[in-house]
């Protein structure tokens, strides 16, 4: 046994692999974030969580006797150090309440239909077992705990899926190293406590990474002709992206991948002609794109049936494309092109600046991949032949360019249209910037700015960790940014 392997053993325990390392790091980091939230001062100026849990009138820690809430209270004993309660802030209040009693008010349709339905389904299953109940005045306690559990489990699995996706994208031993680094970076993402609270970010990241994994597997060069299994994977990836879109509307941007590929198929027709394989792939791309679109259309159709069709139609019902989501974002949340560009919001743009810059730089790196010598050095190593190496490099470059487009579009939309501060958390579900940063970490590259060399990877990773730690305390105390 080599000295390196001997150093990696501890007290005779088996050698740790990358997945065990990822799991250990994940547990340590999550424990730190939850500890910070638990020790935060309290609810601050906003008592929405106390009102949600039925403790806003007299601030009693327990529901009134005989209301049926005692068993639920046993499942979530709350005090000034109740960490589940500390995670119910901002949008999490909406997610928990909607999951408890369904969509009631029009503005609630801004919050992901897919996540609330999943929480409802699991909560009702738990309630049927008799383990706990959230009825009787105790508030949506089961829904809160189920939402927190979903966020933690989804975050862990998204880290694992990102590890395997990275190995699929980048061949050789260096690819394994990049996979480990990227997975750890996703663990300490600046989204921080939002991946522990009952928010949509963790579940979206899992579904988005899974969709990209299946999509990449359907296109991975295998040295033989395209099979129907490849096309089936394409359709399956569209279904997964569709589910991601029900969780967060920006999942719709994944449709760009299929449009990009379909355009390529059409451009190749004069050269390759129309064959069975080409026609089958084009059909699979079309079906996959439709499935992504259904992720947006299905909740809109459900809302249309609920609000439209009588003399009391809401204004959005009469629009050419009736969308309750677009109406709510515009009417209630004032989301629109350049609307957020006010002097009072300048601090929020400053907070979002690092994330926007990172997403922009990494997208540019991926889009100009053919000129990237670093990518050439890393990708393709460990393959059996020079031909395979060239093929892997070209494949990786093509994929990176496609994956960078939705990320770049999202960054531009966040800068010009969205409430810009959310980019720090919604960026957690996109892979390209993790890969860019993983390359910088593995190569320890320096960037010269103002005649001074800076270790950019060290600066970015330190910013991520500090931001997540500070954010955890602010979030639990009901303080911005959110």
UniProtKB/TrEMBL annotation:
Cellular location(s): Endoplasmic reticulum membrane
Residue stretches spanning the membrane: 21-40, 144-166, 178-197, 348-368, 403-420, 463-480
Domain of life of the organism encoding this protein: Eukaryota
GO molecular function: alpha-1,6-mannosyltransferase activity; GPI mannosyltransferase activity
GO biological process, one term: GPI anchor biosynthetic process
Keywords recorded for this protein, A-Z: Endoplasmic reticulum, Glycosyltransferase, GPI-anchor biosynthesis, Membrane, Transferase, Transmembrane, Transmembrane helix
Pathway as given in its UniProt record: Glycolipid biosynthesis; glycosylphosphatidylinositol-anchor biosynthesis
Primary localisation category: endoplasmic reticulum
One Pfam family it belongs to: Mannosyl_trans2
EC numbers on record: 2.4.1.-
Topology term for the membrane: Multi-pass membrane protein
A Gene Ontology cellular-component term: endoplasmic reticulum membrane
PANTHER family according to UniProt: GPI MANNOSYLTRANSFERASE 2 (PTHR12468)
Entry's family note: Belongs to the PIGV family.
Function (record text): Mannosyltransferase involved in glycosylphosphatidylinositol-anchor biosynthesis.
Name this polypeptide is given: GPI mannosyltransferase 2
């Amino acid at each position: 046994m080599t000295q390196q392997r001997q150093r990696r053993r501890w007290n005779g325990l088996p050698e740790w692999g990358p997945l065990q390392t990822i799991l250990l790091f994940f547990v340590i980091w999550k424990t730190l974030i939850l500890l910070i939230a638990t020790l935060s001062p309290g609810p601050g100026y906003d008592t929405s969580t106390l009102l949600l849990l039925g403790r806003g009138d007299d601030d009693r820690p327990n529901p009134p006797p005989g209301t049926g809430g005692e068993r639920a209270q046993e499942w979530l004993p709350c005090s000034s150090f109740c960490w589940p309660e500390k995670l119910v802030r901002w949008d999490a209040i909406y997610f928990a309440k909607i999951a408890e009693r369904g969509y009631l008010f029009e503005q609630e349709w801004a919050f992901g239909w897919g996540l609330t339905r999943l929480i409802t389904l699991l909560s009702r299953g738990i309630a049927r077992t008799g383990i706990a109940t959230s009825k009787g005045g105790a508030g949506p306690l089961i829904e809160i705990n189920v939402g927190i559990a979903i966020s933690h489990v989804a975050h862990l699995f998204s880290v694992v899926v990102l590890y395997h996706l990275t190995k699929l994208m980048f061949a050789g031993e260096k690819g394994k190293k990049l996979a480990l680094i990227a997975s750890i970076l996703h663990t300490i993402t600046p989204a921080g406590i939002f991946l522990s609270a009952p928010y949509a970010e963790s579940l979206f990241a899992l579904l988005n990474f899974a969709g990209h994994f299946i999509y990449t597997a359907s296109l991975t060069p295998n040295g033989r002709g395209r099979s129907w299994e490849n096309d089936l994977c394409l359709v399956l990836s569209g279904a997964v992206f569709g589910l991601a879109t029900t969780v967060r509307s920006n999942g719709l941007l994944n449709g760009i991948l299929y449009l990009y590929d379909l355009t390529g198929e059409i451009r190749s027709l004069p050269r390759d002609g129309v064959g069975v394989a080409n026609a089958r792939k084009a059909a699979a791309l079309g079906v996959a794109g439709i499935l992504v679109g259904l992720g947006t259309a299905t909740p809109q159709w459900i809302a249309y049936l609920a609000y439209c069709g009588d003399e009391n139609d809401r204004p959005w019902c009469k629009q050419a494309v009736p969308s309750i989501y677009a109406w709510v974002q515009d009417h209630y949340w004032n989301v629109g092109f350049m609307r957020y560009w006010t002097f009072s919001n300048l601090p929020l743009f400053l907070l979002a600046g690092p994330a926007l810059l990172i997403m922009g730089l990494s997208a540019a790196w991926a889009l100009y991949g053919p000129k990237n010598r670093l990518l050439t050095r890393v990708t393709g190593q460990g393959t059996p032949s020079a031909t395979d190496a060239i093929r892997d490099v070209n494949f990786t470059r093509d994929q990176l360019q496609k994956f960078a487009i939705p990320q770049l579009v999202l960054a531009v939309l966040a800068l010009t249209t969205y409430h810009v501060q959310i980019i720090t958390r919604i960026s957690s579900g996109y892979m390209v910037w993790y890969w860019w940063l993983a390359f910088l970490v593995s190569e320890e590259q320096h960037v010269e700015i103002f005649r001074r060399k800076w270790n950019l990877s060290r600066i970015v990773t330190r910013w991520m960790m500090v931001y997540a730690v500070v954010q955890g305390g602010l979030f639990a105390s009901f303080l911005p940014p959110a």
